[in-house]
Design goal:
Layout: H1 5-17, H2 29-57, H3 62-83, H4 85-99, H5 105-125
Helix pairs in contact: 1-2, 2-3, 2-4, 2-5, 3-4
Length: 130
Amino acid sequence: MKMPRAAWALALAPTMLQGVHAAEAPAPSAPMATAIDEEEQVVEGLKRFGYLAGLARGCVVEKQRADLEREAVDLHAAIARLLGTDRAFLFASSFGYGTTVQVETKDCAGVLKTYDERVTKYRAARGGRQ
């Protein structure tokens, strides 16, 4: 059974901290810090992606909203399959928050362009699969 990076880091942290003295080299904590940094980066990226999707929803006309919402649900499902439901929840809750923010019409072109780029990048990383 493969343990997720964050769980590995949390499980290993107490062991690593036992017996560590100020004179010892900080090298043993480097893998833990890297694992936590990677986890934090993934979490923040999913939050930003969900928020951007929510903002994009506010920038499309009513006829396009159903398609964008369907795409967001598909993204949520893919995130849940690949990264787990906790991370998918972060995407979904950030999407919900993004839908509450009023985007100025002049900013919508940039929001939609950035959203399309992120979706394209996500799909390319998955081999073009939906």
